[in-house]
Prior knowledge:
It is built from four helices and six strands.
Amino acid sequence: xxxxxxxxxxxxxxxxxxxxxxxxxxxxxxxxxxxxxxxxxxxxxxxxxxxxxxxxxxxxxxxxxxxxxxxxxxxxxxxxxxxxxxxxxxxxxxxxxxxxxxxxxxxxxxxxxxxxxxxxxxxxxxxxxxxxxxxxxxxxx
Length: 141
């Protein structure tokens, strides 16, 4: 793909955005090229996913908000978990589902919190993107 074509593939994530940094770091971690994707659902409906590899074997949503934690961050986490769960079950049953969140947003996933349990039960991997730009899996059992 040409450099211009690759840049168009990034759609809404600019060169300095945390989302682009998250996708690049996760791609390095998993050894795949992750990019925003528009997926044709086969009935004229299209779905945007924040990151996926070419074959949609790895599906990624991100919540990269910085600063003060707000309830809208929790809402985005829940919406992204729903999107990943539905897309995997409806279209890509063998895919890996990853939700990558900033350190600010990671507080949604407390050891005894229901969102932590829901992610685990739904098979969604939660990764934390730290201030140094490194992703690491959530460590709660």
